[in-house]
Write a structure and sequence with these properties.
This protein has about 260 residues and is α/β, with parallel strands linked by helices. Helices cover about 40% and strands about 20% of the residues. The protein has a single domain (about 15-260), classed as 3-Layer(aba) Sandwich (Rossmann fold), CATH 3.40.50. It has helices at about 15-25, 30-35, 40-50, 85-95, 110-120, 140-150, 170-175, 180-190, 205-215, 225-245; strands spanning about 60, 80-85, 100-105, 125-130, 150-160, 195-200, 255-260. It has a 7-stranded mixed beta sheet with strand order 3-2-1-4-5-7-6, with helices on both faces.
Amino acid sequence: MSPPLQFAPIDPAQTHEELHVAAAASDPIGYETLRRMATVARYNDWIYEEIAPYAGRRVLEVGCGIGNMTDYFVRSDLLVGVDLLPASVELTRRRHLKYDHVEAILGDITDPDLASQLQTYAFDTVICLNVLEHIPDDQTALRHMYAALAPGGRLLLFVPAGSYMYGTLDVALGHCRRYDHAMLSERVAAAGFDVERVNYLNLAGIPGWWLNSRVLKRDLLPHGQLSLFNRLAPAFIGGERLLRRIWDVPVGQSLLCIARHDPR
């Protein structure tokens, strides 16, 4: 197996605080957004609950960031996180030092060398949560995720939805696009996957994103709004789950896709 790709060195003597400073310096908006989203526990729980039934035991997380969602999968037999930012990778690595089966790799999922390296792990699950929209060549990224999976393995994909909501928040975060149902289904299928499920989620998130991104032209979601959303999340989530039992509403702030590696 080739060694993990390294885009920039990390000083092993750097403290935890210094790594956070380095992560913030390399991607100020992205880092601060991850930090704020870590406080919205009920939203993160909801995403995990939606994808957990499809997760296997050998997991690749594409775009692990600072490890917000990595924590949910530490009970897997193997968990490998990949990210572009050295400080984020090191933070994720140190955050999970007590787990021998968890590792973090610095790399670009569109890089063919990394794709070859990942194939040696024989993953049965690839999770990619709010990451694909950042990748200019999302089709290559999806093909490499497909290649990283053993036959029958699954891709668990979560992306922002609705091009009509694309605004300053998306620009500040480096989003190349927001997806709709047909676009996401077609791109996942074109990468070789058998698409099992694609559906919208998070109706309640639409007004806040629209207001902050299209009207108020903000770069970050305010702390207060995120805190309010977290408090009200049980009602929002429960109501949406009830609604979608009788009508799969064709709108939402995000799209969830479950797809299987089809070895045809």
